[in-house]
Amino acid sequence: MEAKDRIIVALDVDSLDKAKSLVKSLAPHVGCFKVGLELLTAVGAPKVVEFVHSLGGQVFYDGKFNDIPNTVGGAARAVAGLNVKMFNVHASAGIEAMMAAVSNKGQSLVLAVTVLTSLEENNAHLIFGGPSKAKVLQLTRDAKIAGCDGIICSPQELELLGKQKELGSLLKVTPGVRPEWAAAGDQKRIMTPAEAIKAGADYLVIGRPITKPPAEIGTPADAAKKIAEEIAAILQEKR
User: Which N-terminal residues, if any, form the signal peptide (predicted)?
Assistant: First the structure.
């Protein structure tokens, strides 16, 4: 896998018109496009996925399924039928729900969402009743039992997960990645691309640093290429 293939661009827009120029310019320079609830709701899932495919991009369907097993299984079957590269389900929906997603994934990868990267530690305690890292570890183990292909976690949990040999086969997909030249935004538990790859990330989800880069960086394609170079340098060091 090339360095650029590890980049997943978040298409956080509400129309295909706004997405078109980004997908066309970035498809040669990144591995995948994450389409989330805003665009999927505004336009409709089949239309969005077909649109990205038509412009040469692959799709990470960020639907974050979180329901009873039967419903999650049906949703997984439907999205797998769209030939997306990957889709996700909340690990907190439970092992049976994740198993239902895995059973209906077709050729797609199933990723389990652990603890959202927008949550500060105090909020994680309020929601989960304990430290975020402990919850991420528990949910990752549940995802492994369920047969998921990977998990989504903050870069801050990568080192902890890397120490668990039984979890080594799971792909690690990390939002909350910001180059040094980009603003942190609403992500709380962040790392640079180089730090995240060094810590064990397989894929990096990056939005605004690529789609709306600082003027001194240049175009979205320039930003993607700059990040790919950063990733490539770390991969070379790890060899």
Answer: none
The annotated binding site for substrate is made up of 12, 34, 62-71, 117, 178, 187, 207-208
| Structural domains present in the chain | 3-238 (3.20.20.70)
105 as an active site residue: the answer is no
Please indicate whether residue 62 is annotated as part of the active site: yes
Q: Is 17 a catalytic residue?
A: no
Average pLDDT over residues 218-225: 97
Strands 59-65 and 32-35, by their bridges, are parallel
- What pLDDT shows up at residue 231? 96
List the catalytic residue out of 5, 18, 20, 64. Answer: 64
Of 68, 65, 59, 71, nearest in space to 90 by CA:
65
Higher per-residue confidence, 126 vs 38: 38
